[in-house]
Amino acid sequence: MKIKNKGRKIYKTKEKNYYGKSPVGKFFSALLSILLIGGIGFLGYSVAGPWINYTRKQGDEEPQESETESSEEETFSEIHTENNEMLSVPESKHETYKAFFLSEYDMSSTESIKMAVGRIPQEQGIEYIEVPLKLKSGKLTYKSSSQQITDSDIVQPEITLQEITRTIKKEGYKPSAHISVFADSTIPKIYPQYSYMITETLSVWQDSNSCLWASPFSSDYTDYLTFIADEISEAGFEKIICSDLSFPQFSDRDIEELNDTRLESDGRYTYLTDTANVLYKTITDDNSDMLIEVSASDVISGKAEILKPLFLDADTIVMNINLDEISRGVDTGSTVYEFNGSVSENVLKMLELSEDELSDFNVTVRISGGSNNTSDVLKAKDDIAEKGYTSFILG
Q: Which residues neighbour 78 within 8 Å (Cβ) at sequence distance 6 or greater?
């Protein structure tokens, strides 16, 4: 993980408030505090300054700032509450995440999971097995207890979440999960109101690939996501990676047919961040961690609308560098970037291009794509570690 130091956090041991202020509220609260402090400081100096100058004898030297005062901000490590209770202020720390990603085909049974784990490259420091539990199609790879999808056409293997975590742990690894959020073309077939609706026909909208998408405007779909995230985190998955927190690509004709002014709003990303924060609270309340995955191509193309650090509670981004995808080039609208080098060269080039966009986050690099030699991928993993990216997902 390439860590962005966001400063020290204050942890109070007696009670926890998981709600707090909204991100916008936190921003304006902080801004108001800065203005108040600045105003008080200015007022104090304007009164005290002339008095000090008046009482100082002519020829006296300017008072020197003590070392204690000048270094106070750097060395201050404890804060008193209104009850004189001492609060420790530890440095912010982030766990390094080293994982191997299983495919959906590995999820048919506990035996297939064991076989997939046996293919993991040894001596690479891999600690986590990341399993896809909600696919881009919207289908689940495990037996869910959700009443919304019971007796539906969402494929539910007989394997349970508890069996998955137990199998992974027996193999000596920690379990983590991967869920696709809005790229869901299955549940809108059952609940059309969860998707985008064409105004005139009241039919479900499809993208250029004839795929359906779930909508961030649907509170009922958010409730469904929350249920899925809750049962996964409660089952013992230590980390949950949420991908496809995005809108589909709408054409001008699509916008006209949908006739929804929210889709043209500059602030439409707030629907994405609100959903992400609801998931974050659900997951962290169950003592799991949440990471947000974005496509590397979307990052350098400016399409990763979820990357709004001021509004997001989650601060770790998984950047998925799909080597098969970028081998065809990435068109940002103004520039076409080509990736014709080695695996390492292409990965490093993508990290360099996306560095500014991800500067406010802790970054985990996922190297995916099925047509690459394992040794080339491992070399790329070592090369990015030299650049400070020590957290990775292979597969």
A: 86, 87, 88, 89
